[in-house]
Queue: 2 jobs
Job 1
Amino acid sequence: MTDDHDTTHGHTTTHGHDTDHGHNAAHGRRAADDRTMADRPGATDDRNTLDAWTDTVCRELGIAGPVDRAAILDLTKDVARGVARPAAPLTAYLVGLAVGAGGDPADVAERVGRLAGSWPTSRTAPEH
């Protein structure tokens, strides 16, 4: 499984959809995060490994549809930076549960991204 993503106006797009969702701008990190994977040292090896890993896991778990890897990585990056690093893999798991239970992947990612972007810096849970 591969995803089609390219850089357009400083945003990574996947299947024609902007995956930035404004998270980087909200955190003031746009310049550093706009580099494409190809701009980084060892990027080709990393991309090949990530492609192979994604394909292997999808086959093992019987996942047939396309995987928006860029959106998942962007979301977990925002959670790691805005909430806490250990929250990133936990969030990926929770997002997977929500999507597996019938949630729309784009909606789930947007909602969780919004939560991560508004998470208080004091690391206490927001009042509801």
Job 2
Amino acid sequence: MLNIDELVRGLMSSCGSGDFLEKVHSEVQNTIIDVAELGISNEELVKVLGVYALTQSLRLVKLNAAEQELNDSLSGEFINVIQCLVRALRGLSGECLIGNELLRRVLQYASSLINEVKEHCLQLTSSPP
């Protein structure tokens, strides 16, 4: 069973590396299946999607990539969540309008981790973690 705390620790220790992105992507898929088949709480899905969105955002910021350089397979509204997180990681303000209730909760959860991620992953020197 998924342990959100482990996933968050993995995010902090990897600072969004490609290997971690693959792991969290797999966890998203598994959690969606668990929600559908086992009826686990949507809250688990919210948290996994939040970590996934934050991982995607952190990679864009660290690569200094444009927000438009996102995977086309992601839904438009999920891309909006990632773009909001990128702006927050870059210290930019602005209102984020997300229409989907589940994705608003995803953004809210991911936003709760922003300061810790910024402090741990973006204040480091250019040496690898």
